[in-house]
Amino acid sequence: MRFKLLIPFSVLSLAAMVVLTATGCSDQGLTTKKSALSALPKAEGGGAPSLEIGSDSVFYPNNMPSALKGRQVYTANCASCHGTYLTAQERLDLSKEASLPADQQAVRKGLEKEGRLPEIKSLNGPDFNDRDWRFRRTPGQLFQLIAYGSMPDQLGIADTKMILHPGPVLGPDKKPVKDANGKVQYKAGLGWMDSIQIQRGGLEFVSGDSVPVWDSIYYAWSRSIAVKSVSNFGDVWKIYGENCSVCHGDIAKGNGPISKQLNPLPFNFQNRKALAETTDAFLFWRISEGGQFRRIPQPVKDTMTSQALSLYVHQWSAMPSWRGLLTEEQRWMLVDGVRSKTYEHE
Ligand code: HEC
Ligand code: HEC
């Protein structure tokens, strides 16, 4: 009885799928280019292995960027304007502060005195503890800003205004110019690629090394999850294990037990370069909508480069929509979770 009912239903839904696929692609301005599709590296998985955007200007490092190493780079170069941020452990301690014994409160006072509490409300750029600042940014875009001093504000818009960022002014000897008090001079629109301080025995200015720039960016990036990370990454991987690993694999490489039966393949979240060129806005939307969306909403489109959009090969995929199944918070946790595979962090 059940069996009989099931067959017509699945045939019907299959037919519906085919119709939707046909109309879906034409009215969305999304391309279904077979040639583009076959050119995509299979191992990367997924229909939309994002984008070869800016592959020339974005030197993606061979090694995994490290927010841990970035902390030191940040402290030496960026904290003078952006303020110092606490580690997750320090923050957790502070949030428990009310119940702490008196001598623990002295720890906080000490941090404050050393200027190690975040100077959040300064006018010197965003509060990195707040995730809103990076919602529409990709790590690759931020690399462009910090390494070279400017980036387009909105990815999807052609004539968008450029955001400028200050970098060290270099003298004729290619060394940073310092004022009478020995402080480095900055100018908006200059990048850090030609001079960033790293720890090598002592602090030393290095030139043309993208690694410390990436590390410092991922450090700033990671601040917005540091609040929760110590307790929450465990929860993230529990949700991931229950819902995602069957397709995306235990270590998020896109090779879960049923992945081989899927076409397109599940996305490989260890594809660091692709994720460095993807916004949180996009990831959150993809996790929420799954692979059966009809169109990319404008606010999400605005966070993609025009090149990314034209490369976007829209396919109906097995990726389920998680909107009704996981809470908004859980979907955000998963954004951080899959991203956390692409850089070292606390
Ligand atoms: C039934 C298999 C399946 C399950 C379960 C699944 N996915 Fe997917 N997912 C896919 C496939 C296939 C793709 C690649 C095609 C596409 O982009 O739709 C994909 C793509 C994605 C993408 C898009 C990446 C990009 O940059 O284009 C994200 C993000 C994602 N999945 C997250 C998740 C998360 C988080 C979970 C668990 C809550 C999950 N997926 C569960 C099959 C699955
Ligand atoms: C001389 C002060 C100064 C220094 C030093 C400095 N910044 Fe900034 N930073 C700013 C200001 C001002 C802004 C805001 C720019 C704007 O919004 O136009 C900013 C913005 C940013 C942003 C956010 C960009 C955005 O709009 O999303 C990031 C990320 C950032 N800085 C990272 C760094 C890193 C990493 C370093 C060290 C390598 C650094 N900054 C050093 C002043 C500074």
Task: Show the helix and strand layout.
Blueprint: H1 2-26, H2 34-39, H3 67-77, H4 79-82, H5 88-95, H6 102-113, H7 139-148, E1 150-152, E2 162-164, E3 166-168, E4 186-188, E5 196-200, E6 202-206, H8 210-243, H9 245-248, H10 272-276, H11 280-289, H12 298-301, H13 306-311, H14 328-339
Antiparallel strand pairs: 1-2, 3-4, 5-6
This protein binds heme C (HEC) (2 copies).
Describe the structure.
The radius of gyration is 23 Å and the shape is globular. It has helices at residues 2-26, 34-39, 67-77, 79-82, 88-95, 102-113, 139-148, 210-243, 245-248, 272-276, 280-289, 298-301, 306-311, 328-339; strands at 150-152, 162-164, 166-168, 186-188, 196-200, 202-206. Helix content is 44%, strand content 6%. The N and C termini lie far apart (55 Å). The strands form 3 sheets. A two-stranded antiparallel sheet has the order 1-2. The chain has a two-stranded antiparallel ribbon with strand order 3-4. By secondary structure, it is mostly helical. The structure holds heme C (2 copies).
